[in-house]
Design goal:
Helix content is 31%, strand content 17%. It has 10 helices and 11 strands. Strand 5, helix 5 and strand 6 form a beta-alpha-beta unit. Helix 5 packs parallel to helix 6. 44% of the residues are buried.
Length: 306
């Protein structure tokens, strides 16, 4: 079933008759940088964070991808050998990155996550891209963007990012406020996914969603009170932005008003909701599943970062 048209400012976005499916979209007219909703300032390049990476898989992926400059790596002196630690040592040596051997107490004092697994690294901040960039195809892959609305738990954010890269998400939108950015805990929970994803930070998520909408991206909110089921989403194989809200309060009022479709996950048990990272995983893979027959293949991480 086609989503019901929503009244909003800006160009008319009327759909066809009910049941006719999503309306094809033509090329969107671009606006100058200083007029774009959610556009970036120069100082937002370092606002995302990600300068301290903790956890074995996260540090190995940091070194393996080579997307940003790494200042040093800290390893606990008596760390037990493992293939991942061997990879970290080898990659640091290949890239001539200083390796500092420290005691467990020294690393614990510097760590900001619960269990750094005996390793951390310092690197340049993860760079961000303009919001409009996320609305463009990546090779043959249509835009698939995940937007977080008030998701502040770093473990949930990290889990969502790890799922996102596995499901072929092409970009992530984070609001400047009311969202966890790339803290050491987020980076560790993401297990290296932050090295592959493209991020955009926006001053206001509602205006950013409106901008994506004008650029031809369907905005789909995930909420328990959604009018249709996630598994009957007619726009899943179109350019899509999936909006995930806070686990407690769900989508904020203004964000919900900017969604073209609000979908829910059917629940048959006694509990009323799922953890946001679990719900996000289901939604991401439902979009990925619906896209596979049309695309025939998924984009590599290297394509997403270009």
């Amino acid at each position: 079933m086609s989503p019901t048209p929503k009244g909003r400012g800006g160009p008319s976005r009327a759909r066809g008759p009910r049941g006719s499916g999503p309306r094809p979209r033509g090329p969107a007219r671009r606006r100058p940088d200083d007029q774009r909703a959610g556009g970036q300032r120069a100082d937002e390049r370092s606002e995302l964070g990600g300068t301290q990476i903790e956890g074995r898989h996260a540090v190995r992926e940091l070194l393996l991808v080579g997307r940003r400059q790494v200042r040093d790596v800290w390893l606990v002196e008596d760390l037990d050998g493992s293939p991942v630690i061997d990879d970290i040592r080898q990659l640091a040596d290949e890239h001539r990155i200083p390796v500092r051997r420290v005691t467990r107490s020294e690393l614990a004092a510097a760590a900001q996550s619960d269990a750094p697994q005996g390793v951390l690294a310092h690197a340049g901040a993860v760079s961000t891209v303009d919001l409009d960039e996320l609305a463009r195809p990546v090779g043959a892959t249509l835009p698939f963007v995940v937007c977080l609305d008030g998701v502040t738990d770093p473990h949930n954010v990290g889990a969502i990012l790890r799922t996102a890269i596995g499901a072929g998400v092409t970009g992530v939108v984070l609001p400047r406020h009311r969202a966890a950015h790339l803290t050491p805990t987020v980076a560790k929970a993401a297990a290296g996914a932050i090295e592959h994803l493209r991020f955009s930070i926006v001053s206001g998520l509602p205006s950013a969603l409106a901008r994506l909408s004008t650029l031809g991206v369907w905005v789909v909110g995930l909420d328990a009170g959604g009018s249709q089921t996630l598994f009957d989403l007619p726009v899943a194989d179109q350019p899509v932005a999936l909006v995930l809200g806070d686990e407690g309060s769900g989508l904020s009022r203004l964000v919900r008003a900017r969604c073209d479709v609000v979908a829910s996950i059917p629940l048959w048990g006694p509990l009323e909701s799922l953890n946001v990272s679990v719900a996000g995983a289901l939604a991401c893979y439902e979009v990925a599943r619906r896209r596979q027959p049309a695309s025939g293949s998924s984009s590599s991480a290297a394509e997403l970062m270009q």
